[in-house]
Design brief:
By secondary structure, the chain is α/β, with parallel strands linked by helices. 24% of the residues lie in helices and 28% in strands. The chain has one domain: Metallo-beta-lactamase, Chain A, CATH 3.60.15.
Length: 250
Amino acid sequence: MRVTFLGVGGWVSMPWLNHPSILVEAKGARLLLDAGEGSYRQLRRCTGIDVDSIDAVIVTHGHGDHILGLPSYILMAGSRGIKLSVMAPSYVIDGLMNLIKATHIQQYATALNPIPINISNEPSLVTELKGVRIYAVKVNHSVEAIAIKLIDQDGSCLTYSGDTAPSRSLIELAKGCDVLIHEASGNPGFEDEAHRHGHSTVRDAINIAKEAGVKQLILTHFYTINPIISELNEGLSLMVPYECSMIEIK
């Protein structure tokens, strides 16, 4: 499983971090996790692949920094005469239809293949796509939001938090995975402020990774220029990616 970070910031991050979007290339499928503003440009710049190579986009929630890139994908899919599958909570699908109208690309609306995801408090299998099992669970954010787990045919496993304050459901979802990509919108010491807005700090993300038993923690969605890393337990590695960086999960 190859993971390419197209954008690693949040809505109010420094512009060079770009908005959230992660390309996951499994053995059988290419999946895009969230599609923030400018992510289509980043997809072409970082990987050279195009919309016709994406099997599905999975959107964790409806905030703009996670969905505003979708009109570009829909426009490009429509211009090529192909369908773009978008998996998301039902209210996000409704918002996306409004976004298509707001950007005046209704002529390409038929390019969208919407796949609503039921929001569950327990980790649940959403679907299996080309041998990749996709799980989701509700997490603690300011709007309804999900975290995602992907398990490839060879057993490689990745969990992605989306936006969330510390969530027991996410810990349960991540158990058994080697890699957790978790948001870290604040530095240690700013927990009260982060939690008030449905977000986590670096310290929160590390504690969640330890409790879930993952081997590697990858921080994204950081609002601060320089995330401050707390001490880690032995056996847990930590990565702070930059745009276009890539890792392999085996």
